[in-house]
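Question:
When you can, review this sequence-structure pair and walk me through the tokens.
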Amino acid sequence: MAGPTDLAFDPWDPAFVADPYPAYAELRSRGRVIRYEPTDQWLVPHHADVSALLRDRRLGRTHLHRFTHEEFGRTPPPPEHEPFHTLNDHGMLDLEPPDHTRIRRLVSKAFTPRTVERLKPYVEALADELVAGLVRDGGGDLLTDVAEPLPVAVIAEMLGIPEADRGQLRPWSADICGMYELNPPQETAARAVRASVEFSAYLRELIAARRKEPGEDLVSGLIAAHDAGDRLTEQEMISTAVLLLNAGHEATVNATVNGWWALFRNPAQLAALRADHGLVPSAVEELMRYDTPLQLFERWVLDDIEIDGTTIPRGAEVALLFGSANHDPAVFTDPGRLDLARADNPHISFSAGIHYCIGAPLARIELAASMRALLRQAPTLALAAEPERKPDFVIRGLRGLGVELR
């Protein structure tokens, strides 16, 4: 079935990337599923369908637990990409049961709500310290001065990565995450492969050191984690650590700068937040919905499914449009309006089903901590210059966010 050729949906168009939400409204008006030839995917724009398909076991993040690439009608990735796929394919985000179940259960033992709650004072103190530096300088780049160092330091602290090594983490992560964009070019793939090799080698050495001298950190916990004889292989530990680092800060960094950019564009809402810091928890949720950090999540169709009379065959790929789902007027009243007091807010920015973000509680603590620190210490924070948006569509963020104190 050929898809429409006149869609406003164009993930490589800077104008679309700058504001995809009008195009999403058009997609929703076209139906519940739309074939998109440029990426060989089926676009799913409605909240009810995205939410249901995230929980539908006829779809999977991988097909390799049931089919070879050839059996599934897919071309295997080129051999030169192997280091990236070895790293990516052994992380629980890209696994399905039973491996996903086993790894998530073992990781959860070392990533409990109590562990996250114990981190709260550290997160808040670090947020206060970073914001104090921004205030001392009279402003700066909110991305590099606060949004980025906070979650990177927190997840590195959890993993037990020495402070001296942490400068490598963000560049490695950015290069690896480039592969999650639609149809990434060859140079992006080459950077992702190189980062995968370097990051894996670094973690292999760290794991070896922790085997000899265990600590209180998450890597030591992953080494020790076991349940009924199950253990993580070394590759699973490496892939899990990379996933926790990447997922543990990419979304938080982008949610922070996307959120403050939205606040500066909605001064009445920012004024309300400054007048009532009790709005912070609902503001965090609303800003995650309003400008979603992860716009699209892909799933393979493992068994034929039907959506609104259209059969999507096994071997196809669906693109679940989180950004569109979070602006669906069937679920959100006046979805294009930023409402920091929005009470009914079932956004799906943290996904759903078995792949629901294991780090969601930590992300909420980090986002609230930096927001409170900025509200408290920088009540006159203002935009210094119009920000430039990254060209990426799937992982949505800014190149920087220049701010000043007035």
Observations:
- The chain has one domain: 14-405.
